Amino acid sequence: MWFGKVRRHEFTPRQLMALGVLFLAMLVVAIARFPSERVADIRVVPGILAVLLAPTTLVANAQSYRAQAQLIRIRIPWRDAVRITLLGSAANLLPVPGAVVVRTADLVDRGADTKGAAGTTGVGALAWLGLSFLCAAPTLLWRGSWSAWPVLLAAIVTLALSAIGSIRLGGSVHDWMVVALASGGLVVALAARYVLLVWALGFDPGGSALALVAVGALSSAAGFFPGGIGLREVLAGITATLVDLPAAVGILVAAIDDIAWIATVAVGVIFTEAGRSFRTSLARASASEQ
Predict the structure, then answer these.
(1) Which of 85, 184, 202, 267 is 20 to 30 A (C-alpha) from 55?
(2) What is the dihedral of CA 189, 77, 17, 52, to 10 degrees?
(3) Rounded distance, CA 103 to CA 225, Å?
């Protein structure tokens, strides 16, 4: 898949099989890290709801990508946005910032210059990170944790950098607000799952679960851990202790969400790309008969 040609790339059956092996390997890694000691105590209904809500991140992420593209005056159809989001999420399972590369390549393919494509992707990422910090800060402050102030400062700085980046790309205040609102959808989607998972594990989610939201953004932003796996669990365990939750609860919440997300991406990518290849084959067969 060459840089700038993501939109037109079609996976061969062999490539789809390789993707399937990759997803299986990542699921094995995620499950192997799974701390199973508290699973017997889990409440089934909120736990299942949290897992079933994993695709909401896909929807929010796709909308966020469309908003980022609009910042540089590129319109992306909804179906394309979902596909690029799935491919970016799959690439993120590798120890590289895969989503950034895939999105930048797609925007270049649609006529953007590399600087603008990378810049608008950065604006969205900073907005997501800043809003995640902003979601976590009040909870830490309410719990009397010293970390509330550094987290709040990080939120202000990252949001400011996002807004400045938007202006430098020629965007208006309205354009940046659209990107920030779409990024907020990502934060809400993750927060809802974390609240349900903390509740499922027998703890009052109150505001404590919201402090874990920053963990998802921060670990993904690190980029050099496959899908944030491992790093996310470590950060979740540390963050949980700051809001009076056992470290094991934070680790388990992150581990369950990791597994649900990898499964969502795996199903989405395989079905989307297999369907795309099948439709192309039918079109070619039909054209050859005419």
Answers:
(1) 202
(2) 20
(3) 19
pLDDT of residue 168: 92
How far does CA 233 lie from the centroid of its chain?
15
d(CA 47, CA 43): 6
CB 127 within 8 A of CB 183: yes
| pLDDT value of residue 187 | 92
Q: How far apart are CA 232 and CA 219, in angstroms?
A: 5
CB 118 within 8 A of CB 104: yes
| Domain-located, residue 215 | yes
Query: Would you say 72 and 120 are in contact if contact means Cβ atoms under 8 Å apart?
Result: yes
> Would you tell me how many other CB atoms lie within 10 Å of the CB of residue 69?
25
For the chain, the domain total comes to 1
Name the more confident of 139 and 22. Answer: 139
**Owning domain of residue 100:** 48-278
12 assigned to some structural domain: no
Return the closest-CA partner of residue 259 out of 43, 97, 102, 36.
36
Q: Indicate whether 26 belongs to any domain.
A: no
pLDDT for residue 55 is more than 90: yes
Over residues 168-218, the pLDDT tens digits come to 998 888 999 999 999 999 999 998 999 999 888 888 776 677 888 877 666
